[in-house]
């Protein structure tokens, strides 16, 4: 879970939900698209799952399957 009040990483990853127009008072007016990113210890992105609906998150079983496939040492 990542807190990104200024939306720096959200914008770097290109996952800002442009259709959402509210936010934290005094903060950025944005809401990220729910995205799960698996990154290995070298910083290489191994898997990305992005929701089509901002109210939905990645299914835990889908994430576990991706862990087993892309980062097997971590899922054991």
Structure description:
The protein is of the alpha+beta class. The protein has helices at residues 8-13, 60-70, 72-75; strands spanning 35-39, 45-50. A two-stranded antiparallel ribbon has the order 1-2. The two termini are 21 Å apart.
In short:
Helix content is 28%, strand content 14%. By secondary structure, the chain is α+β, with helices and mostly antiparallel strands. The model has no long low-confidence stretch (mean pLDDT 78).
Any idea what the shape is? Answer: globular
**Computed Rg:** 14 Å
Total beta-strand segments: 2
Structural class: alpha+beta
The helix count comes to 3
Tell me the series of helices and strands, N- to C-terminal: HEEHH
Work out the count of structural domains: 2
Strand content: 5-15%
Topology:
Blueprint: H1 8-13, E1 35-39, E2 45-50, H2 60-70, H3 72-75
Antiparallel strand pairs: 1-2
